[in-house]
Amino acid sequence: MDIYTYSIELSSRFSDPNVHEIISKIPESNLEDIGVRIEPVCPNIKNILVTGGAGFIGSFLVRKLVLLYPEFNIVVIDKLDYCASLNNLLMINGMPNYSFIKGDIMSSDLVTSILKEKEIDTIYHLAAQTHVDNSFGDSLEFTQNNVLGTHVLLEAAKAHNIKRFIHVSTDEVYGEVAKTSPDCHEESILAPSNPYSATKAAAECLVISYYKSFGLPIIITRSNNIYGPCQYPEKICSKFICSLIRDGKCYIHGDGSNSRKYLYVGDLVDALDLILNSGQIGEIYNIGSNFEISNLDLAKILLEQFNIDEKKHIRYLEFVKDRPFNDLRYAIDDTKLRELGWKPKIGWDYGIKKTIDWYKENCDKWWGDISGALVPHPYNSYKTLPPSGDYKKKININFCGIVNYTNIIVNIIFVLVCFVFGKYFYRE
Length: 428
Description:
The chain is of the alpha/beta class. The chain has helices at residues 3-12, 19-24, 28-32, 56-68, 108-117, 132-137, 139-159, 195-214, 236-245, 265-278, 295-305, 313-316, 335-338, 348-362, 388-395, 405-420, and strands at residues 47-51, 73-78, 98-102, 122-125, 164-170, 218-223, 225-227, 250-253, 259-264, 284-287, 292-294, 317-320. It has a single domain, classed as Rossmann fold (3-Layer(aba) Sandwich). The chain contains 16 helices and 12 strands. The longest helix is centred in the middle third of the chain and has 21 residues, at 139-159.
């Protein structure tokens, strides 16, 4: 089916006469990522809340749900942190089944009012701090957002009889996987090795506990590294691409031998859609890719994509100090999800070309100034403290130099979660 016919088909599902005009303005490359409906649709779903829906993955998911399922009402909550942008959702502005709320999921009153007023029955929870580098410098913020934010959401979901709570996590909770070790399946031991993955694992423990203790109907997903258009340029693919567009360098951590598996964002949201409609309550689903590449080889491939002669590669490659800890690789077994009928559709060659094309057109205008994201180690900025007034505000210290009690409480919550629910880290 050609794109024009596809857009007409999407429009025909809506009774609102303005929808055709909205869809006709969506770029072809974006329509390609919408995909097709899952049939049959889960009959219990009507009003869906997507947390972090203005972010990279969240916005792809929101656009898909809004355009494919006119019977769903999609509500987005996002605090519009540095890596999110309303530009990600601009193409669906005016759609009758979409609404946006700027807000923080750590506000219990706000979350409760949304669930009640919008009669939410389903939650996709994607809101999180996700950049490993930043977690080495400001790890407390990761605990607050990823653990406490999830806890607030779970409490509200429990009180409002949510029918599906889909918690989007990461393969990093499994920790490093040696090439001689088998791929991690959903019941593998969790062994997070950095503050980011530790907070995601702690959040998972809370999610599982609400399923076991209160019967909250949860599903957890864990995916490989995701790449594609609209990703804030702090992750390696988008960071290297934006740097090369500016004739800058690709900064290689360590010797560049660390490898990752990469999955195109459109394939990920296809999986999230399938899991919403066909996934089993209480299950965990790995979402994986077979394409694995080292950081150094990734940089070289991107240089080739930019038609930079191999003899000039050395000019664009700079080896820098490694992270405080850098997992060698991750590897997951996604057999369970593939048995539901999912498999990736976008190959690396096509996906990375499409991604590069998007950044060439948009990287300098989508988020504003991105220069701070393109440095070798963003977390180093936290080591130099700002002037005293900003310093107190930044790390929550009062005039006596005593740490604010809120931070203490958050840390205690995190330790208790890990202690009380620690047995889930060691399930066979």
